Amino acid sequence: MQILQSLLVGAHLLGMAGFIAAYFVQRRTQPDGPLIAMWAWSVLIVSASGFGLVGVGIATDDHHDPVKMIIKGGLMTVLGVAVLIVYFRRRAIPRQLPAVFATAVLAEVAVSVLIT
After folding, report:
1. Transmembrane stretches, by residue range (predicted)?
2. Cβ–Cβ under 8 Å, residues 27 and 109
3. Are 12 and 46 in contact (CB under 8 A)?
């Protein structure tokens, strides 16, 4: 079970890195265009690995802070729904929207680090 948990943590971190990379790629290639697919894939990877980590924690009776899980789950749900709605509309976006998404990701990372 420890190997599965380590793989899920790695996938979760790669998904978070995907968000930050998507922000820089979006800024460089098409700042006013539609969202690139990397945003949607990062949402899927982070959500699946995050819920998998919660499931592994419950299965192994590992101690998890429920407040932290609620905050992270809520942030990711709001961010994920917003990204997917904007992505599937396939229209031009406001220039500051990717920065708002990246800030939400950084807020989730801060919650991960600061709430223990």
Report:
1. 6-25, 37-58, 70-88, 97-115
2. no
3. yes
